[in-house]
Amino acid sequence: MTATAHAPVPHYRLAVADVIKISVWHNKRLSETVPVRPDGRISMPLIGSVLVAGHTASGVARTIKTKLAYYVRDPQVTVIVTHVVQDSYRDRIRVTGAVEHPASLRYEPGMTVLDAILDAGGVNTFAAANDTEIHRVVGHSERVIHVRLGNILSEGRLGTNYRLRPGDIITVPERLL
């Protein structure tokens, strides 16, 4: 079952450009509504910069409470997500390079490399299919996963028909002529 625009998302993790409302009970000066900056952080009085991207609202509240405890006795902190970035861009798979129709595809659970390549119209005649790569961001670094797409397409060998994750970029290079 896929989530609809109105369905609850359990354990939502904050992302860049989301907006959160931070309430510190009995302390209006520390209560504010802030966007998540491009570096995944927010700025707050007294405690400065706090990394929030990738964390839940309740986890961010605990972090802020811990940092504020140095300045405020027993702070009670609530974090509410007030605006969520459009998932339509975050939850995409991009297929680039020597394919018939380079595409940005909506991620679907269980989607594999073969699914994405077929959605992009397959490889073109210039493709170096066995040199295909998945570029995946893991934490703060990029991981490159090698895919033997030629073996998948021509021989049915599915050993590198990996399951995809939202944000993956599949690159099919052109072969040298």
TrEMBL record:
Q: Name one GO molecular function term.
A: polysaccharide transmembrane transporter activity
Gene3D superfamilies linked to this entry? Outer membrane lipoprotein wza domain like, wza like domain
InterPro entries named in the record: PEP-CTERM_polysacc_export, Poly_export, Poly_export_N, Soluble_ligand-bd
The domain of life for this entry's organism is Bacteria
* A Pfam family the protein falls into: SLBB
Q: Where is the signal peptide?
A: none
**Which segments constitute the Soluble ligand binding domain?**
93-143
* Polysaccharide export protein N-terminal domain residues: 8-82
UniProt keyword annotations, A-Z: Signal
Q: What is this protein called?
A: Sugar ABC transporter substrate-binding protein
Question: What organism does this protein naturally occur in?
Answer: Acidiferrobacter thiooxydans
